[in-house]
Amino acid sequence: MLEAGEETAGLREQVERLKRRVAQLERSDANHRKAIEASPDVTFRFGLDTVCTYVSPAIVDVLGYAPEEHVGRPTFSIVHPDDDDMPRQLREHALATLPGVSSTDRVGPFLSRLRHKQEHYVWVESTVVVIRDPDTGAVEEFVLTARDVGARVEAEAALRVSEARFKTMLDNLQVGVVVQGARSEMLSYNETALEMLGLTADQLMGRDSFDARWAVIHEDGSPMPGDQHPVVVALNTGKPVRNVIMGVFRPASESRVWLLVSASPQFDASGRAFQTVCTFTDITAQKEAEALIREQKELLERMSSPIIPIAAGVVVLPLIGQFDAARAERILDAVLSGVAQHGARVVILDVTGVSTADAAFAGTLLQITRAVALLGAKLVITGMTPAIAQVLVGLGIDLGGLVTRGTLQDGVTFALAR
Question: Which domains does the chain have, with CATH numbers?
Answer without folding.
Answer: 28-152 (3.30.450.20), 173-288 (3.30.450.20), 305-417 (3.30.750.24)
